Amino acid sequence: MKTLFRTAVLCAAAILLSACKIVETVPFVDIPRYMGVWYQISANEVSFNEGLVGVTAEYTLLEDGSVEVLNKGYQDTLDGELNQITGNATIWDEETNSKLKVVFPGAPDLPYPNYLIVVLDEVDYQYAVVTDPFEYTLFVLSRTPQMSDNTYAMILGELEILGVDTSDLILTPQAVD
Protein backbone atom coordinates (compact mmCIF):
# COMPACT_ATOMS: atom_id res chain seq x y z
CA MET A 1 0.00 0.00 0.00
CA LYS A 2 2.84 2.39 0.90
CA THR A 3 4.55 1.73 -2.45
CA LEU A 4 1.30 2.33 -4.33
CA PHE A 5 0.81 5.67 -2.56
CA ARG A 6 4.40 6.75 -3.25
CA THR A 7 4.00 5.81 -6.92
CA ALA A 8 0.77 7.82 -7.14
CA VAL A 9 2.45 10.87 -5.57
CA LEU A 10 5.42 10.62 -7.94
CA CYS A 11 3.11 10.28 -10.94
CA ALA A 12 1.08 13.30 -9.84
CA ALA A 13 4.27 15.32 -9.41
CA ALA A 14 5.47 14.28 -12.87
CA ILE A 15 2.17 15.36 -14.42
CA LEU A 16 2.30 18.71 -12.63
CA LEU A 17 5.90 19.28 -13.67
CA SER A 18 5.11 18.50 -17.29
CA ALA A 19 2.22 20.98 -17.15
CA CYS A 20 4.29 23.87 -15.81
CA LYS A 21 6.51 26.07 -17.93
CA ILE A 22 10.25 25.61 -17.76
CA VAL A 23 11.87 28.35 -15.69
CA GLU A 24 15.27 29.27 -17.06
CA THR A 25 17.97 29.36 -14.40
CA VAL A 26 21.27 31.20 -14.45
CA PRO A 27 24.07 29.45 -16.35
CA PHE A 28 26.30 28.83 -13.31
CA VAL A 29 26.45 29.44 -9.55
CA ASP A 30 29.72 29.29 -7.61
CA ILE A 31 28.26 27.63 -4.51
CA PRO A 32 30.98 28.76 -2.04
CA ARG A 33 30.46 32.40 -3.17
CA TYR A 34 26.69 32.00 -2.75
CA MET A 35 27.05 31.01 0.92
CA GLY A 36 26.37 33.48 3.70
CA VAL A 37 23.49 35.73 4.69
CA TRP A 38 20.90 37.00 2.21
CA TYR A 39 18.18 39.52 3.07
CA GLN A 40 14.72 39.12 1.60
CA ILE A 41 13.88 42.34 -0.25
CA SER A 42 10.52 41.10 -1.53
CA ALA A 43 8.65 37.83 -1.90
CA ASN A 44 5.42 36.22 -2.91
CA GLU A 45 3.57 35.77 0.36
CA VAL A 46 2.69 32.12 0.89
CA SER A 47 1.62 30.19 3.96
CA PHE A 48 5.09 29.66 5.42
CA ASN A 49 6.21 33.30 5.18
CA GLU A 50 2.89 35.06 5.81
CA GLY A 51 3.37 38.25 7.82
CA LEU A 52 7.12 37.81 8.24
CA VAL A 53 9.43 40.85 8.16
CA GLY A 54 13.17 41.19 8.64
CA VAL A 55 13.55 37.89 6.78
CA THR A 56 17.00 36.43 6.15
CA ALA A 57 18.33 33.20 4.74
CA GLU A 58 21.75 31.97 5.79
CA TYR A 59 23.45 29.29 3.71
CA THR A 60 26.36 27.22 5.05
CA LEU A 61 28.27 24.72 2.92
CA LEU A 62 28.67 21.42 4.76
CA GLU A 63 31.52 18.92 4.40
CA ASP A 64 29.35 16.48 2.42
CA GLY A 65 28.65 19.17 -0.22
CA SER A 66 25.09 19.85 0.95
CA VAL A 67 23.98 23.23 2.23
CA GLU A 68 22.45 24.06 5.60
CA VAL A 69 19.62 26.58 5.17
CA LEU A 70 18.64 28.75 8.14
CA ASN A 71 15.61 30.95 7.46
CA LYS A 72 14.65 33.61 10.02
CA GLY A 73 11.93 36.24 10.18
CA TYR A 74 9.89 38.22 12.66
CA GLN A 75 6.11 38.01 12.84
CA ASP A 76 4.39 41.24 11.71
CA THR A 77 6.99 43.72 13.09
CA LEU A 78 10.75 43.83 13.49
CA ASP A 79 10.10 43.50 17.24
CA GLY A 80 7.75 40.55 16.73
CA GLU A 81 8.22 36.91 17.60
CA LEU A 82 11.22 35.30 15.88
CA ASN A 83 10.34 32.43 13.55
CA GLN A 84 13.15 30.27 12.26
CA ILE A 85 13.61 26.95 10.56
CA THR A 86 16.67 24.99 9.49
CA GLY A 87 16.66 22.80 6.42
CA ASN A 88 19.08 21.15 4.05
CA ALA A 89 19.70 21.73 0.36
CA THR A 90 21.36 19.46 -2.16
CA ILE A 91 22.55 20.47 -5.59
CA TRP A 92 20.26 18.97 -8.22
CA ASP A 93 22.15 20.06 -11.34
CA GLU A 94 25.90 19.88 -10.80
CA GLU A 95 26.62 21.33 -14.26
CA THR A 96 25.14 24.73 -13.34
CA ASN A 97 24.59 24.52 -9.55
CA SER A 98 21.52 26.73 -10.15
CA LYS A 99 18.91 24.12 -9.20
CA LEU A 100 18.74 22.82 -5.66
CA LYS A 101 16.36 20.69 -3.69
CA VAL A 102 15.63 22.16 -0.26
CA VAL A 103 13.95 20.09 2.45
CA PHE A 104 12.61 21.49 5.72
CA PRO A 105 11.31 19.47 8.68
CA GLY A 106 7.63 18.69 8.28
CA ALA A 107 7.57 19.64 4.60
CA PRO A 108 7.16 17.05 1.84
CA ASP A 109 10.33 15.66 0.29
CA LEU A 110 9.62 16.59 -3.33
CA PRO A 111 10.98 14.55 -6.23
CA TYR A 112 12.29 17.64 -8.06
CA PRO A 113 14.38 20.75 -7.36
CA ASN A 114 12.39 23.48 -5.62
CA TYR A 115 15.04 26.21 -5.37
CA LEU A 116 15.81 27.66 -8.79
CA ILE A 117 18.21 30.60 -9.05
CA VAL A 118 16.84 32.60 -11.99
CA VAL A 119 18.66 35.92 -11.53
CA LEU A 120 22.10 36.43 -10.00
CA ASP A 121 24.58 39.28 -9.85
CA GLU A 122 27.27 37.19 -11.51
CA VAL A 123 30.04 39.71 -10.75
CA ASP A 124 29.70 40.37 -7.02
CA TYR A 125 26.88 38.03 -5.89
CA GLN A 126 25.10 41.02 -4.32
CA TYR A 127 21.57 40.02 -5.40
CA ALA A 128 19.71 36.91 -6.48
CA VAL A 129 16.18 35.83 -7.33
CA VAL A 130 14.90 32.38 -6.45
CA THR A 131 11.68 30.61 -7.43
CA ASP A 132 10.34 27.08 -7.87
CA PRO A 133 9.17 25.22 -11.00
CA PHE A 134 5.61 26.48 -10.50
CA GLU A 135 6.62 30.07 -9.62
CA TYR A 136 4.51 29.71 -6.47
CA THR A 137 7.38 31.14 -4.47
CA LEU A 138 9.50 34.07 -5.62
CA PHE A 139 12.19 35.71 -3.50
CA VAL A 140 14.30 38.76 -4.34
CA LEU A 141 17.41 38.53 -2.16
CA SER A 142 20.25 40.93 -1.39
CA ARG A 143 23.47 40.80 0.60
CA THR A 144 22.37 44.02 2.31
CA PRO A 145 19.07 44.81 4.07
CA GLN A 146 18.27 47.58 1.57
CA MET A 147 18.39 47.62 -2.23
CA SER A 148 18.44 50.68 -4.47
CA ASP A 149 15.29 51.40 -6.46
CA ASN A 150 17.33 51.23 -9.68
CA THR A 151 18.68 47.75 -8.88
CA TYR A 152 15.22 46.52 -7.90
CA ALA A 153 13.69 47.89 -11.11
CA MET A 154 16.48 46.23 -13.15
CA ILE A 155 15.78 42.89 -11.46
CA LEU A 156 12.04 43.20 -12.16
CA GLY A 157 12.94 43.91 -15.80
CA GLU A 158 15.08 40.76 -15.96
CA LEU A 159 12.23 38.74 -14.50
CA GLU A 160 9.82 40.18 -17.08
CA ILE A 161 12.19 39.13 -19.88
CA LEU A 162 12.24 35.61 -18.37
CA GLY A 163 8.44 35.60 -18.28
CA VAL A 164 8.31 35.36 -14.49
CA ASP A 165 5.16 36.87 -12.97
CA THR A 166 6.10 39.51 -10.38
CA SER A 167 2.59 40.79 -9.67
CA ASP A 168 2.40 39.08 -6.25
CA LEU A 169 5.73 40.37 -4.93
CA ILE A 170 5.44 42.19 -1.60
CA LEU A 171 8.29 44.32 -0.26
CA THR A 172 9.74 42.93 2.97
CA PRO A 173 10.53 45.47 5.70
CA GLN A 174 14.11 45.15 6.92
CA ALA A 175 15.92 46.90 9.75
CA VAL A 176 17.86 49.95 8.59
CA ASP A 177 21.57 49.82 9.34
UniProtKB/TrEMBL annotation:
Keywords: Cell outer membrane, Lipid-binding, Lipoprotein, Membrane, Signal. It is found in: Cell outer membrane. It holds the Pfam family Lipocalin_2. Residues 1-21 form the signal peptide. SUPFAM superfamilies: Lipocalins. Its main location: membrane. CDD domains: lipocalin_Blc-like (cd19438). Residues 29-174 form the Lipocalin/cytosolic fatty-acid binding domain. Gene3D superfamilies: 2.40.128.20. It comes from the Bacteria. Involved in the storage or transport of lipids necessary for membrane maintenance under stressful conditions. Displays a binding preference for lysophospholipids. Homodimer. Belongs to the calycin superfamily. Lipocalin family. PANTHER family: APOLIPOPROTEIN D. This is Outer membrane lipoprotein Blc.
